[in-house]
Design goal:
The complex is a heterodimer of chains A (276) and B (426). Chain A is α+β, with helices and mostly antiparallel strands and 276 residues long. Chain A is built from seven helices and 15 strands.
């Protein structure tokens, strides 16, 4: 998942702690291997090399594609799992390599969930298009790992995969978990404290991933309708929800709303924090 | 301002289809109601009126979350009162002897002092239960019942409150109904209206052992979130009480038409129904952790008592874990239509005339009161606690129809009280 992952467990039982940690880790690796676009033997690779032919997917994938379909509809097309292909021209490595508008425009005809035929369990992807579950994969992994851990133990735990977090309940003797939110300009130093009794937290933003040219920062959230970053978006958005997948979707949606992120989040009845 | 749709329902539906997703309510920061555990809070109130009533009131509340948004709670209150309370009789230039409510004993009030009934002691136990249950995504029902008992008083009540969220949960509409039934088992029996209090040992004028009353309350409310940091509450309430509303322990002095010296003491009598209307508005605002809470209440009833209450509190955050909360409250009321501090001999109703009404109870007279207080508390810690100290002073105007010896007496002395309240959460 290319980011630090941790599992905190409220127990004095070292064996249990190790067991639960490996359950979470195994689930993370399983999801990574199954859905990563960098793996040359998984279902994603199979779909990308199917040359416009239908591919049958398993139950879990069906659920995720149904969810992606819902997200696409809920977001009026802003949340689109076919937009991952834009990484070919947008490399958010902190450099100043900004593609031209023409280059970006050329990619638009390779993006669009509405071009994909999805009739469970068959997915038919037009040639030249790709799907990328990165938009909610890490959050889904957090939820899924949490479910597996909760099935094994009633101990309070917190799962943190690179800032996407799920906590089942507060540790004994404490009201809540205390989560430090990173500040933009001093990575690694807690900027403010979020108290989480239970629930999930997800963050979207460019504290680590961005491009910068002539003093303008291009956030890593891309609008699939323009193939261009959403300018004037907050630099980061953190959302608390009942599960990490929802929190991640809302955080990403907020970024996609650009300067209207705050208003969007205010209408969602969730706890959130926003850095400009 | 763009209008954004709340996606929570659709999103919850979408994620519910993901069988691999764990789900837990994203509880508010300090919501300690972990499933399965009782959340216990306790409070103790010490109340001391100078020269009058002292009270100690411990309260224990236990709340249990039985499901997301579903709570069961119980509350036990024990009230222990001792001391003396103004009987309603006027002071005199001579010592006065009164019979106690039982009629088996007597007490003497020294010259020029407000007659206080010193037999005022009681212990009240009240147990209440409430159950909050969501009945749909946006509607919540709270059912409650209450039982309270003193040696001469029993009260039973039930209530139901329905709250419905609309407008992206920015507006809550509520309607509540409660019904109470009280039984009064007066020490010595129910006095005859305007019956004359006789010396100890003699048979007092009585009309039975006990009586009862029924009270119906209806509340209609709107709570509106104004912004991320503020909200406004508006309530209308209606209350109808029927039955025995007289205070069997309060009396009225009959004074001589020339000297104004008390010559006899009569039991009071109040109407047997009371209709009250009240409006209440509250504004709360969060200024980056400091919270302003301002409210105003206007109430009017067919006893003729109109009242205004202004209450201001400000929770000032000293640091992340402690706060100071100053409090000030102003209250004023007009007197009941049948309030009279005394009868001039010849104007008093005849005994048993239950269609005439009169009381000399200072709580039904015209007065203003002020409460000022300061609370210090620790919150955001594992065991929150707070201590509040409040001072209450009530003052009323002296009646303007005094004459004779009453012209030199204080008929409406100020009452002041100090309250200390300690809250502790386990």
């Amino acid at each position: 998942m290319a980011s630090p992952c941790e599992v905190l467990i409220d127990t004095f039982d070292e064996t249990l702690a190790k067991q639960l940690t490996s359950i979470a880790a195994e689930e993370a690796w399983r999801i990574e291997n199954k859905f990563s676009r960098y793996n040359n033997s998984n279902i994603i690779h199979h779909i990308h090399t199917a040359q416009g032919e239908p591919v049958e997917v398993d139950d879990e994938f069906c659920e995720l594609l149904n969810f992606a379909d819902q997200c696409y509809k809920l977001s009026d097309g802003l949340f689109d799992i076919t937009s991952g292909i834009l990484r070919e021209i947008w490399k958010f490595d902190g450099s100043s390599n900004i593609p031209s508008r023409k280059q970006a425009k050329a990619y638009l005809k390779r993006i669009g969930w509405d071009e994909v035929r999805w009739q469970a369990p068959f997915l038919t992807l037009p040639k030249g298009m790709e799907i990328d579950l990165g938009g909610f994969g890490k959050e889904y992994a957090v939820d899924s790992a949490a479910k597996n851990v909760a099935d094994q133990s009633s101990a309070a735990f917190l799962i943190n995969f690179g800032g996407d977090i799920y906590a089942n309940k507060p540790p004994k003797e404490q009201d809540s978990w205390r989560i430090g939110l990173e500040k933009n300009d001093a990575l690694g130093k807690a900027n403010s404290i979020l108290e989480l009794a239970s629930g999930a937290v997800a963050t979207s933003g460019d504290t680590r991933r961005y491009l910068e040219k002539s003093g303008i920062r291009f956030p890593h959230v891309l609008n699939p309708k323009t193939a261009w970053p959403v300018m004037r978006a907050p630099s980061s958005v953190t959302v608390v929800a009942d599960n990490c997948t929802s929190a991640g979707f809302l955080a990403t949606m907020a970024m996609l709303k650009g300067k209207h992120a705050d208003e969007f989040l205010a209408a969602q009845n969730v706890r959130y924090s926003l850095q400009t | 301002m763009k209008n954004f749709k709340n996606l929570s329902v659709a999103l919850a539906g979408a994620t519910a289809c993901l069988s691999g997703v764990a789900n837990v309510s994203a509880a508010e920061t300090l919501d300690k109601n972990d499933f399965g555990n009782w959340d216990i809070k306790s409070a103790i109130l010490f109340y001391n009126e100078s020269d009058r009533v002292q009270a100690i009131e411990p309260v224990i509340t236990a709340t249990k979350q039985i499901d997301t948004d579903e709570f069961l709670s119980f509350k036990l209150v024990v009230d222990s009162l001792t001391g003396a309370s103004a009987s309603g009789a006027v002071p005199s230039t001579e010592a006065q002897t009164f019979s106690t409510p039982s009629g088996n004993d007597s007490y003497t009030t020294p010259a020029n002092e407000t007659p206080l009934d010193p037999t005022f002691f009681d212990t009240r136990y009240a147990l209440s239960a409430s159950w909050v249950k969501p009945i749909s995504r946006f509607t919540k029902l709270t059912l409650g019942s209450n039982f309270s008992n003193e040696f001469d008083y029993l009260s039973l009540s039930s209530s139901a409150l329905l709250a419905h969220d609309i407008n992206n949960r920015n507006t809550t509409l509520s309607i509540g109904v409660s019904a109470a039934f009280d039984t009064i088992d007066t020490v010595g029996g129910i006095p005859v209206a305007f019956g004359r209090q006789l010396p100890e040992g003699q048979e007092q004028p009585r009309q039975g052992e006990e009586d009862d009353k029924a009270v119906i309350d209806v509340v209609l409310g709107v709570t509106q979130v104004l912004s991320k940091d503020s909200l406004l509450v508006f309530n209308y309430s209606f209350s109808q009480a029927d039955g025995y509303l007289t205070d069997p322990y309060k009396v009225i002095s009959v004074v001589d038409a020339a000297s104004a010296k008390p010559i006899e003491t009569l039991y009071e009598n109040r109407p047997d129904n009371r209709t009250k209307h009240a409006v209440y508005t509250q504004y709360k605002r969060n200024f980056s952790g400091n919270i302003l809470d301002a409210s105003y209440r206007y109430s009017t009833d067919d006893f003729g008592i109109d009242s205004n209450t202004v209450d201001l509190r400000f929770k000032y955050r000293l640091n992340e874990q402690s706060f100071l909360k100053p409090h000030i409250r102003f209250y004023s009321q007009s007197e009941a239509d049948f309030y009279t501090p005394f009868f001039v001999d010849g104007s008093q109703p005849l005994a048993n005339n239950s269609s005439s009404f009169a009381t000399a109870d200072y709580r039904l007279g015209e007065f203003t009161s002020t409460t000022i207080g300061l609370e210090y508390g620790r919150d955001n810690v594992r065991r929150p606690w707070s201590v509040a100290l409040e001072y209450y002073v009530q003052s009323g105007d002296e009646p303007d129809n005094t004459f004779g010896q009453l012209a030199n007496q204080e008929l409406y002395p100020d009452v002041d009280a100090v309250m200390l309240r300690i809250n502790f959460d386990y």
